């Protein structure tokens, strides 16, 4: 991808988290990074994140919500100037895990997307 295409793609990612998600990879400890799969319920969740101030959610494990929140936080930090993001969870260990997920996503972005750091 040449510089012009990178700038174009970067702008598309800034305009839409759904475009940004095309470049996202996730990984669990001890596993290789894999492409992020946008399950149908997560499409709705991302739309709610964009349109609602508060979301009530009864969360169960293994449905991708923690990854979605970590990705959303990274996207906001990346593309919204001066945007403060707090990542917190039930306890310190869970909060550190959520922050680590954002770092994993960042670490696995294409190099050309890391120009902001």
Overview of the structural elements:
By secondary structure, this protein is mainly α. It has a single domain (3-114), classed as P-loop containing nucleotide triphosphate hydrolases (Rossmann fold). Helix content is 51%, strand content 3%. It has helices at 3-15, 17-20, 40-51, 65-79, 92-107; strands at 25-26, 34-35. Strands 1-2 form a two-stranded antiparallel sheet. A hairpin with a 7-residue loop joins strand 1 and strand 2 (34-35). Helix 4 crosses helix 5 (92-107). The protein is globular. The model has no long low-confidence stretch (mean pLDDT 87). InterPro entries: P-loop_NTPase.
Give the overall form: globular
Strand content: under 5%
Total DSSP helices: 5
What oligomeric state is this? single chain
Structural category: mainly alpha
Low-confidence stretches: none
CATH fold topology: Rossmann fold
CATH architecture label name: 3-Layer(aba) Sandwich
Order of helical and strand elements: HHEEHHH
Rg measurement, Å: 14 Å
Largest sheet: 2 strands, antiparallel
DSSP strand count: 2
């Amino acid at each position: 991808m040449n510089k012009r295409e990178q700038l174009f793609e970067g702008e598309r990612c800034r305009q839409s988290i759904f475009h940004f998600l095309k470049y996202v990879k996730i990984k669990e400890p001890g596993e290789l990074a894999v492409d992020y799969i946008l399950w149908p319920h997560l499409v709705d969740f991302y739309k709610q994140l964009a349109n609602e101030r508060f979301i009530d959610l009864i969360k169960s494990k293994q449905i991708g919500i923690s990854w979605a929140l970590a990705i959303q936080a990274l996207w906001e930090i990346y593309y919204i100037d001066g945007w403060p993001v707090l990542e917190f969870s039930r306890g310190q260990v869970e909060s550190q895990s959520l922050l680590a997920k954002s770092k994993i996503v960042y670490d696995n972005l294409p190099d050309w997307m890391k120009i902001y750091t």
